[in-house]
Amino acid sequence: MFDDEDRHRYAVVRNGEEQYSIWPVDLDIPGGWTATGPAGTKSECLAHITEVWTDLRPASSRRPAAEPTR
Questions:
Q1: CA atoms within 13 A of residue 15's CA, in its CB half-sphere
Q2: Structural domains of the chain, count
Q3: Contacts for 32 with CB less than 8 Å, ≥ 6 apart
Q4: Domain span at residue 19?
Q5: What is the CATH number of the domain that holds 40?
Q6: What is the pLDDT of residues 31-50, one digit of tens each?
Q7: Structure pTM?
């Protein structure tokens, strides 16, 4: 499932919508993303994401809708 041949190091990153990704540790993290987990191999980072990212909907989709104004 994961590419075991890739020996680069990655960081787990998350954006404001609580969506996860990985990013090479030797590159600056893009705006809107924050390092939020372990750094390691691609397989290690993806395994961590699999454990913590259980609801794939963006955070804004999970928030309750505002009640209608009367």
A1: 14
A2: 1
A3: 15, 16
A4: 10-54
A5: 3.90.820.10
A6: 999 999 899 999 999 999 99
A7: 0.76
